[in-house]
Amino acid sequence: MHIYINEANTHDGEEVTIKGWLYNKRSSGKIRFVLVRDGTGIIQTVIVQGEVPDKVFAIADAITQESSLILTGTVRKDQRAPGGYEIVCTDLKIVQRAEEYPISPKEHSIEFLLPIRHLWLRSKKQTAIMRIRHELIKACRDFLDDQGFVNMDTPILTPASVEGTTTLFPVDYYGETVYLTQSGQLYNEATAAALGKVYCFGPTFRAEKSKTRRHLTEFWMLEPEVAYLELDGVMDLAEDMMVYVIKMILEKRSDDLAALERDCSKLENIKKPFPRITYKEAVSIIQKKEKDFSFGDDFGAPHETIISEHFDRPVFVHRYPAAVKAFYMKRDPDDDSLSLSVDMIGPEGIGELIGGGQREDDLDTLLKRIQEHKLPEAAYGWYLDLRKYGSCPHGGFGLGIERTIAWICGIKHIRETIPFPRMLERVYP
Ligand code: 4AD
Ligand code: MG
After folding, report:
1. What is d(CA 394, CA 45) in angstroms, rounded to the nearest whole number?
2. Average pLDDT, stretch 269-275?
């Protein structure tokens, strides 16, 4: 019977078949230890000379790393085996004998690995990250679905910018210039007015001009948007969602976190409430370390790191100067120079995980902002309509999936958090 490796523990003593690839092998006298992977895990197979036909033993000697194979044998509980179970082989067939595999178990440089990402993805660490990615996305969606949110898919090709005009990717659309979306937010505001609580989840694009460890040009964002939700409610929602997803990943992906040697105590700390500080308070924290940082400056990576070092869990920074935020941010009624914006800064120097806030809901003010930002008014006609027909306070946020994975997995660079990263100077493979 064909089983997957992660089901081996329920087949103790039974004869099973595994379909997979050779991960590694070693020999000791008349025994060959063959490590087989099938995507769900890795299992050790024992092949003993004299106990299998000579032909099978010869295959075990000849098989190369990453050859595809079909193996039959009996599952046996063994404390010493990695994973606690091994298979005593009775038959082994090679499906395709792999050429000399470029990735050996030794360490390789990132310059070597990135162009062979299609192969690098098979490694133990990378598969652990990908399973955590899957779990994160599932947990975010489960959280929102359970609260009655409706998933609304927003367009990828858009006539207008959301997050400023400097990071747009233009696309020729039958002779007209359109752009790859930077965020589904503006369309989310329309669907929230139709359905109340919505979210979109999809790829978003930014023509980032600098190489950093936290920027991709194509990344995935989960964006909830809620009618009648104000700034404090946006923070409550983001906090509840983050606590839930961390709990689910700790529960369901502890093996993968262990494979990544992640210090889980850091994640177990992620409990409510998250501190909520104003931009002004964040500035005074930064100024204790960086004297030349002034009120009004936007935060760079080093500043976010300074803030995160102050706390053992994510922290909300709200009410940034309106001048450093996007055109759609509602102003603080108590201080018109500030915006009702909020960022969630992650722990351990990971930087901004979430950006969001309350949206401008007054027609004339929004029109003025569009003009101040020198945005093409015509492209925003439909967006302004939302303020003409039943406008209401509303807000939401965007969670960057890749940065959140990098934090959860404890890896420094987000290029390893997506199957095929797109960055400045990299679109292959
Ligand atoms: O702060 P940002 O730009 O917010 C928005 O796009 C809002 N329109 C979202 C909303 O309110 N619905 O981006 C949100 C998050 C950031 O906090 C960060 O985690 C991630 O998206 N992000 C990136 N991740 C990887 N590479 C990039 N170039 C990113 N830019 C933003
Ligand atoms: Mg932001």
Report:
1. 58
2. 96
